[in-house]
Amino acid sequence: MSLVSMKNIHKHYGGVTALRDINFEVGSNEVVGVMGDNGAGKSTLIKIITGLHPFDKGEMYIKDQKINPRKYSVKKAHEIGIETVYQEQALAEKQSLWRNIFLGRQKTNKLGFIKVKEEKEETNEIMRELMGFTGIGANPDSNIKTLSGGEKQGVAIGRAMHFDADLVILDEPTMALSLQEVEKVLNFIRDIKKRGKACIYISHNVANVYPVSDRFVVLDRGEIVGRYEREKISLENLNKELIELTKVEG
Amino acid sequence: MNSDSKLLSKKNYDKYKTQIGLIGISAIVLILFMITSPKVFLSPRIYKSFLSTVPFVGIMALGLTMILAMGEIDLSFPSVMALSGFVFAITLKSTGSIFIALIACISTGAVVGLFNGLLVTKIGIPSIIVTIGMQFFIRGFSNILSQGRAYPMALSDSFFYKIFAGDILGLPSQSYWLIGLGIFLWFILFRHKFGEHILFTGDNEDATKMMGINVDKVKIATFVLMAVLASFAGVLDIFRMRTWWPTMGEGYLMMVVATVFVGGTSMHGGDATIFGTLIGAFLIGSLEAGIVAAGLSGFWTRFIYGLLIITAVTLHTVLKNQR
Questions:
Q1: Whole-angstrom distance, CA of residue B288 vs CA of residue B302
Q2: Cβ-defined contact of B192 to A114 (cutoff 8 Å)
C-alpha cells in the first residue's frame, strides 16, 4: 500500500510556480530521501503533505483516502498519522518542554483545562525512552532555550515518535548538529524503518541521506528530475547525478 | 539539609526571580511612602481607597497582559471603556433595564475587539496602528454621539450597585472583581489550552501554525477578550461615579501600559505574568497618592512613573538573562 500518493500536483505562490506536475509516492515501510538545491520545492512538497499549504491542482491520497486540499490541515495530518520534524524544529523557546511536546494535542478535561500532571509524567517518559535524556539537567519544566541544538532536535523527534506516526517527515534534521548528534538522528531514522513505519528524509547532505534511505528523489526548480534506488547506485554516483541534474544552464 | 527542600532553592529562585524582584521593588516603594507620609500610609484608610481605585487599571492591565503574551499590542482600550460606557448610559436611559444595558455595553466592547482582531489577522495591519487608529476613531465616535454631554444615572438603589460598587465584607466590591478576574485569567493563560495557544503564538507564531493551531482565531479571541475587559472596567467606573462622562478612560493608557511592563510581562510575546500585573497595578495605582502625600508637586508624577518603569524593566531583563 502507498502511504502517500501524489499525482500531477501543482502549487503556485502568486506568479511563482513552486511545484509542477509532481508524481510522488511513499510506501508504508520505506525511507525516501528527497534532495535538491535551495528553492527546488522540497519544503513546499512537505508542506502540502503535512497540510500546512493546500495544493492547487492534481490529486493526493493518504492511506488510500483522497485528500480535499480545502479541508486538509495539519490537525487532520496528525490524525491520519503524519508527523513532521521541521528544519526550524517548530519549538517555542520560552515555553517548557512539556508544553512543546503536547502543543496542539493537549490532554484536557471537558472544559479545555490541561491535565498538567499527566502531560509532565508522559514528557518524563518520552525524555528517558525516546530522547535519550539521562535525567541530569533537563526536565519537563526546562525551557527550550536552555537546551543545546541536539537536545532541541531530540525534543522535536521525541514529539514525532511519541504520537506513533505512520509517516515521519524530517526536514534538514542534521543542520548545525555535532557528529554524535547526527548519528543519533540517523539511528532514529533506522528505528523508524524497524518499527514498520515510513519516513521522508529531506537534506542537502547526500552522505547523511544515502546510508539510511531506500530510494532517492531529486527535485529541481519545482520538478522531479531524478529517481534512484539505493541498491542500484553508489554514493559517489548519486553525488555526481545530483550535481549534473541541478546544474544551472548557460 | 537537602538543598531541594530549601524555600529558595536554585530551581525555585530561577522560576520566581522576577516576581521576587517585583515584590522587592514594591516593598521599597511602600516603605519609602511610609517614611515620607506616615500619617497616610500607616492608616488602613488609604489601602481601602486603593482597593476601590486600582481595579480599573488592574482589569484593563490583565487584558493587555494577554495581548502582549500573544505578541501584539492594543492601545484602544481607554476609548473602548468610554464608548461601552456611553452605550450603557443610553441603553439604560431608553430601556430602564440595567441588565440589558450591561449586555449592550459588553457587546460593544466585543464588537470593537472583533474589528481590531480582523484588521490585524485578515488585512495584516500591525496591531499598534490598528489600535491607535481605533482609539481615535471610537473616542471621536462617542464624542459625536454624546455631543460632549455627561449622563448621570440613578444606580445607587439597584442590586447591581452592591456587586459593582458597594462594600462586601468591609472591602470594595471592585477589588473582588480584580482578584477574581486575576485568578480566572491565570488559570486561562497557564492551565487552559487557549492560554497555551496565546503564549505559543507570542513566542513562535510559525511554529504554532506548524502544530496545527489556528493562530488567527487565537488573536481575534484575545482582542475580543481585551475589549470586553475594558468595557467591564467601564461598567465598574460608571457604577462608582453614577455618571458617564465624555473623557472617561483618558489617563488610563499610560498607567495600564506601565502596570503591565512594571509587572514583568515581556513586550516580545510568549512570556507573561498575571501575578506581576496585579502587583504592578497596586504599585502604579498607589504612586500618585504617595507622591502627593509626600508633599511633592504633581510635576514629579511622570518623572517617578518613568523612573519606576525603567528600573523595573531593567531588573526584569537582567534577572531573566541570568543563567
A1: 9
A2: yes
User: Strand, coil or helix: what is A18?
Assistant: strand
Domain ranges of chain B: 10-322
What are the tens digits of pLDDT across the range B249-285?
A: 998 998 999 999 999 999 899 999 999 999 999 999 8
At residue B4, the pLDDT reads 46
Chain B contacts of A51, Cβ < 8 Å?
212
pTM equals: 0.90
ipTM: 0.88
Give the integer Cα–Cα distance in Å for B161 and B11. 46
Cα–Cα dist B111/B103, whole Å: 12
Among the partner-chain residues B206, B213, B271, the one whose CB lies closest to the CB of A104 is B213
Determine the distance in angstroms separating the CA of B242 from the nearest CA of chain A, rounded to an integer. Answer: 37
Which pLDDT does position A150 carry in this prediction? 79
Count A/B contacts: CB-CB distance under 8 Å: 73
Buried b (16+ CB within 10 A) or exposed e, A111-126: eebbebeebbebbbeb
Are B254 and B224 in contact by the 8 Å Cβ rule? The answer is no
> Between helices B215-241 and B98-118, what is the axis angle to 10°?
140
How far is it, in rounded angstroms, from Cα A223 to Cα A221?
A: 6
Percent of chain A with pLDDT over 70: 95
**To probe the interface with A, which of B13, B191, B203 has the most A CB atoms within 10 Å?**
B203
Q: Do B200 and A99 touch (CB under 8 A)?
A: yes
List pLDDT tens digits, range A128-169: 877 766 556 778 998 898 888 878 888 888 888 888 889 999
Q: Any CB–CB contact under 8 A between B183 and chain A?
A: no
Helices (H), A5-129: 42-49, 74-80, 97-102, 116-129
> What pLDDT, on a 0 to 100 scale, did the predictor assign at position B323?
54
Beta pairing class for B243-244 and B151-152: antiparallel
pLDDT of residue A89: 67
Top CATH class of B10-322 equals mainly alpha
* Torsion angle of the four alpha carbons B195, B198, B200, B205, in this order, in degrees rounded to the nearest 10: 160
